[in-house]
Structures are given as C-alpha cells and as structure tokens.
Design goal:
Two copies of one chain form a homodimer. By secondary structure, chain A is of the alpha+beta class. Chain A has one domain: Mth169, Chain: A. In chain A, strands 2-1-3 form a three-stranded antiparallel beta sheet. Chain A is elongated and about 50 Å long. The first copy, chain A, starts with a strand and ends with a strand. The interface between A and B is medium-sized, with 31 and 31 residues.
Chain lengths: 79, 79
C-alpha cells in the first residue's frame, strides 16, 4: 500500500521558487502561464492493506515531520 | 486551468532524502514503513481551457526545465 502526499506553500506565503520557474518559462517563450507553485511530493510504501488504520498515522506524520504547518498545506491519499 | 506535475527520482537512482525521512519515521516510532521516495510537485496555472493544446507544451517544459530526465521521472495531469 502506498501513501501519496503533496505539500504546497500556503497561498498567502511567498513562493520565490515558483516565481523563478514562472520567469524561466516566460524567458523560454511559454506564454499564458499565470502562476507557478512549487511544493514537495512524497511516496511512502506501507505494510498491510488497512488504509483506515494508516490514515491517522500519515496525518500525524504530515503534521509533525513532512510539512511545516505554519507555511505549508498538505493533502494525501492512501491506495 | 491547472497543470499538476509530479517529479520523482527514478527507481534505480539513490534517494538519500527518502532514506533520511524513512529513518526519521522509524525513530519516531512509526512501524511498517517499507520505503519512502521524495520528489517535487509543481502546480502551473494556465490561461484558456484547451487542455489538449497545453499538453505538448507542458510535456516539453517537464523535459527541459522541471525535471532532469536522466535521473527523474515525471507525470502530469491538466484539469
């Protein structure tokens, strides 16, 4: 079983990496890109097949280890 | 419209960041985590609503700018 976790900067937080990528895209001639956000992606391989039992553990790990909840949002799926 | 891009290290490539996260999870008492992969996530806001027209452009940007195709895989959705 696998947990797929996406961590993104909160909308109110400056995202200099995203702005840099957006500027690079413009310089490369891509038109029509209005915004870019850069975040992290984690894939966690899990033993067993009880997604419901893993859910609170992954939630806690997201909060404590994977993300900084002050400036980042996270969401995950377990499948 | 929005492109959501996930970039992960290829399976054959060492992923020291993933190993570090896995070790941290073990130390924090999480049992049953067999592997962790750490990658990047990008959200690109796009003008218009023609997903098919954007597809080759995003594919190209993934290859040239977002990822290092020698050591990373990418996949994306446009919605």
């Amino acid at each position: 079983m696998k947990a797929k976790i996406v961590i993104t900067p909160k909308k109110a937080v400056l995202d200099p990496q995203g702005k840099t990528v957006q500027a690079a895209l413009e310089q490369m001639g891509y038109e029509g890109v209005t915004d870019v956000h850069v975040g992290k992606y984690l894939e966690v391989d899990l033993e067993g097949d009880d997604a419901e039992a893993w859910k609170p553990k992954i939630e806690e790990a997201c909060h404590k280890l994977f993300s900084n909840p002050v400036i980042e949002d996270y969401e995950f799926t377990i499948e």
